[in-house]
Specification:
By secondary structure, the chain is an alpha+beta fold. The chain has four domains: about 120 residues, Arc Repressor Mutant, subunit A; about 180 residues, no CATH class; about 100 residues, no CATH class; about 60 residues, Alpha-Beta Plaits (2-Layer Sandwich). It contains 23 helices and 14 strands. The protein is extended, with a radius of gyration of 31 Å. The N terminus is likely disordered.
Amino acid sequence: MNSADEAATKAHQTPTPQRPTTGVLDYLQSALPRAQLLDLYTEESRGRFVCRAVLQQLSETAQQVVVRLSCTGGAFPAAGVQVWARPGRYERIVAELYRWALIQDSAAATLTLTPEFAKGLQESLVSLDASPWTAITASQIVAMEQEASERSKQVTPEDLERYTQTQWDAVLHFLVGTVGQAEPPPAVVHFLLQTDLMQADPEYAGDEEEAPLVITQKGYDFMLQDSYQQVWHFVVQYLRSLESHEKGLVLRKEALILLICLSFARTGEAYLASSLKKDGRVMVKDLALFGLLYTRKIGKATLFYPTRVAMQLVGVQANNATDAAAVWSLSSKALDSALAHPRPHDSSHLAIICQTNFQLCAYTTSELHVSMLGLFCEVQTIRRLPNVVFMTMSRDSVKAAFGLGIQARQILRFLEKHAHPKLRISGSPVPSNVVDQIWLWDRELSRVIFTQVYQHQCLIPGEFRAVQQYARDTGAHAWSSDRRQQILIDYGKVEKVQNFTRQWRAKTAARPAEA
């Protein structure tokens, strides 16, 4: 068995240690053993899309190396491959390719693509299919509605944007305990408990099983995250729940392939659920709970629409400025539509104007958004108009948010993400003095350290020097003043110092009697 086979066997037996991931492709690299990654490349009819997604994830030079290897029969002398890369970059490229299970052995004299990836890549390069499924056109949907004697409004990208936001508003309403809101599906509630975003109220005096759920410190952090990050938390938990199933590996594989294929679909287009496998059709319903998909039935047919969040999780890369701008534009367009009315007709949107005097002008009609702003604003400063809420940030309110576990970067990210569209045109939507001040308040937490101490007052001559020296030797000394004859002792070690003081005073008092 060569070194590559040994590595593959070891990876199959010992899965890669879990770490926080940021998306589907990051999950593939960090959470899947090498053998399971190779299995994805060989999946019939859809493995080529996995290969294409991985190829797009590589650095530009690594992409060129892979494509050139595929054009040379899948193998080329390592010495020749080194010429393709800049000096000093070859080792990093080979390590990157081996992590993705694209090459067999990183130390061999000949660089060889793994047969599984080579086959999937070849199929991807010669295939003319841009999407794994055939999109249903508007005219076909109309024909289906006529056949089923139904008629409904056409689904637009803005509708999908509002749908995704509404799904997460329901979750956040449940987190903060908004009265009068419907409870999320049991799967969502289970996630909130499993990930410690909520817990049974520890102060509830009745039966523990009937205790109401309350938000935790971790839940406050979750509330201020971007919606795509929140969805990804749910997806990871969903993948873990599949692992506990009797067909765990098969179901997880199907879910990962489905998520990857979504990145090659187009936001706003409709696809038939019948084009998926049986397990895939069940997962479409599950993913709809998370806001990744929107589903609708026309007669006996079920259509699903990928949402913007699905594209962010697996398709839009941070270095792809065009796609990222398109996603941002779609979000802004939906928000502009909601703000076009004197009274916003859709409360799922929030548009914030942050002023240099630390006052926030928030265009919203949602009590949820008011509760979220109240995490770091002075609640008593709230003023309301029909479609606008005014609140003020202060040192006390921001530091109170820090006490809940919320960080400065999370507050600033929240203000930037929900900034009014007119502020997104150029520069930062948050004034620089506000950004600087929030960071200064954050640094106060580390600049000033509070220590609980006990004040010891020395009463007789010589006591100060003796107690001071003992406190320093034992690590209990916090501060002392010779002039005041005072010593501040670490509260956790007060008993030791007091015992020493009593003994020292007793010995000092006994010396004149002996003389």
